[in-house]
Amino acid sequence: MRPVYITRLSKYLPNDPVTNDEMESVLGMVNARPSKARGLVLRNNGIKSRYYAFRDGKPTHTNAELAANAIRALFDESTPIERLEVLTAGTTSPEQILPSHAAMVHGELGIHPVEIISATGACCSSIQAMKYAYMAVGSGQAEVAVSVGSERLSSWMHASRFEPEAENLKRLEENPFIAFEKDFLRWMLSDGAAAALMQGEPNGEGISLRIEWLETTSFANELETCMYAGAVKNEDKSLTGWNDLDIEDWTNKSVFSLKQDTRLLGENIVPKGGVFLKKLMDKHNLSGDMVDYYLPHMSSEFFKNQIKQYHTTFGMDIPEEKWFYNLPRVGNVGSASPFLMLEELFHSGRLKKGERILVMVPESARFSYAYIYLTVV
Question: Contact 8/201 with Cβ under 8 angstroms?
Fold first, then answer.
């Protein structure tokens, strides 16, 4: 493997930022009732504003458009998009089952033929896609590659998607509020895209980020599903997918909504990330004093102190002044979030050559994790 450098980073955040007080006016109220979960969730997650590709009950962009807009911003006359050879994309929220999301992004770009790879999942999907691009450049099979993470979750979370279930609950004379596991994520997730350009040579001027290592893993062999869509979870913890459910259930049970088991999340998301990080510390001789900037992708600031405690437990002390994240300003944008943090830091003017960056990305779907270690050059 030859060295691989992130030479450019870009983002695309749709429309104007939406404050906490404005959220329900954009996403709507299920059954014309304010959400019971909204206040509790927003008090804990630390998010103050986010972006939605959705206005007046209608989408303003597709997921593919968000991704394509971020990718276009990577290129200019000095590095034209015609040099692109490999396009990799990760998302939780494609508009369709087929074609793949990367194919739709490629079509939206309207450029020359390129190799494409789609990674499907949640927050780690963009990093899993990035690893393919990294290996393509590192092996010498490509000179210029792009990885993009993008989400358009607002349409999934609009109140209209839950009205049939609320009406069904009324008919059954039950509480017409949708379950917390579904309502919870309506106030956690948002839209946007961010992309990274990878090359075999660093920038001639300015800084680049050399990828020292990029590692991912899954604990699905040990843990049940935590976050899911297009399925229902059974009492035995297994999932029944949408294609094995009655069509009426698709709407009456909001089968295609995102759902999360918050108990399972709280018990496992930080500890399992710590297990993997300890393994990487041993493998790469990594210690806290070898990190100048720590970029933790957190779905909520609720987990911040727990992360700190676990770091201390296995000797990975990273002072808070080294932490860098933008969750309060841009929200939790799933697969785009790791690149959004890197993009903001990259363009902040703070980075100095020789500094080292550790990026942490957890995914609660069935507990996957990614870590990236970078050097500023």
Answer: no
pLDDT tens digit sequence for 190-220: 999 999 999 999 999 999 999 999 999 999 9
What is residue 237's predicted lDDT score, i.e. its pLDDT? Answer: 95
28, 161: one domain: yes
Cα–Cα dist 58/52, whole Å: 11
Rounded CA-CA distance 267/372 in Å is: 24
Whether the CA torsion 252, 123, 39, 307 is positive or negative: it is positive
Distance CA 309, CA 325 (A): 18
Report yes or no: 69 and 193 within 8 Å, Cβ to Cβ: yes
Q: Are 196 and 127 in contact (CB under 8 A)?
A: no
Question: Would residue 228 count as lying in a domain?
Answer: no
Residues of the chain under the 70 pLDDT cut: 168-178
- Whole-model pTM? 0.95
Tallying the residues shown for the chain, one arrives at: 377
- Residues 299 and 146: their CA atoms lie apart, in Å, by 25
**Domain membership of residue 12 as a residue range:** 5-204
